[in-house]
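Hi all, posting the design record for the shared folder.

TITLE: backbone redesign
STEP: 1 of 1
STRUCTURE INPUT:
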């Protein structure tokens, strides 16, 4: 399945989950179950926005965006994080009102069955989405999957809280559980926003990918051949690396171009989705750049 197909499935599952969890809240009157239903509503909005951003990211380069639209996926995770903040505030507000005016719960058994059914659907989908997101390096799909996992853990906490209310008769446990849910999803929301900002700031490639790049360059290094000014960045599903290749000044243009082509092909074969840009320079010429130069393949944590 494609990333878009998974997100369409996520929208369908979110609609079904909202119906189940809203029904659980309606039958029981539990504010913690209401908080669980609100988070599912965020899932729906997030999946819809993610599908839109993935569609934008898949557009080919144009005159205004010559490097493509791949960064659009980062807007998806940031948007979903902001939605989570809004949902958390709504949950806390409802929980405080219920804490001031506790109410007994009704039809708890039916409500919990509906909640667990929705959680099972979310968990199964989240597992499949996360595996596919890692293969496709889709930030939008990964954000949606991680939020679904958070929803599953949230539901588990809510179910435990409702059962505790039934076992102890302490009505205040219901709104306290809802507040705990809000705190948990705030943590997830802050993580999504942080990762979104990091992506938009042109973060370098992952350490394991940089090691793969360095291994490829090591195969071509020699007494008369060297590489420097190695820089990389991520943009959604795309990866980019720029570097300088220093060669003997006496080489013909054909020979130099053939070596550059071989290095580019080796890099792109070692790292799927990589776009390599290599500048040829004579061995005795050093390039000057405005920014502080850091050879990323030699600066790994």
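Okay, here is what came back for every position:
SEQUENCE:
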């Amino acid at each position: 399945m494609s990333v878009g197909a998974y997100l369409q499935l996520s929208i369908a599952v979110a609609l079904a989950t909202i119906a189940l969890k809203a029904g659980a809240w309606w039958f029981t009157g539990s504010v913690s179950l209401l908080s669980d239903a609100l988070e599912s509503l965020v899932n729906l909005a997030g999946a819809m926005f993610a599908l839109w951003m993935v569609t934008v990211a898949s557009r080919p380069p144009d005159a205004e965006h010559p490097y493509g639209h791949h960064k659009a996926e980062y807007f998806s995770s940031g948007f979903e994080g902001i939605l989570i903040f809004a949902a958390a505030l709504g949950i806390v507000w409802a929980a405080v009102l219920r804490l001031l005016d506790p109410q007994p719960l009704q039809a708890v058994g039916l409500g919990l069955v509906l909640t667990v059914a929705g959680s099972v659907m979310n968990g199964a989908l989240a597992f499949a989405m996360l595996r596919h997101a890692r293969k496709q390096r889709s930030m939008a799909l990964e954000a949606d999957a991680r939020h679904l996992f958070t929803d599953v853990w949230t539901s588990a906490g809510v179910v435990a809280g409702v059962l505790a209310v039934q076992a102890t008769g302490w009505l205040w446990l219901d709104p306290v559980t809802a507040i705990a849910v809000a705190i948990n999803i705030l943590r997830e929301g802050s993580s999504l926003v942080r990762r979104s900002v990091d992506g938009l700031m042109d973060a370098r490639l992952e350490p394991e990918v940089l090691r793969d790049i360095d291994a490829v360059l090591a195969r071509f290094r020699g007494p008369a051949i060297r590489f420097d000014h190695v820089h990389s960045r991520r943009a959604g599903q795309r990866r980019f690396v720029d570097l300088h290749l220093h060669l003997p000044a006496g080489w013909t243009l054909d020979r130099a171009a053939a070596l550059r082509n071989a290095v580019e092909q080796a890099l792109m074969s070692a790292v799927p989705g990589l776009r390599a840009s290599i500048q040829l320079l004579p061995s005795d010429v050093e390039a000057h750049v405005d920014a502080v130069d850091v050879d990323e393949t030699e600066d790994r944590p």
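COMMENT: The two ends are 35 Å apart (CA to CA).
Let me know if anyone wants the other runs.
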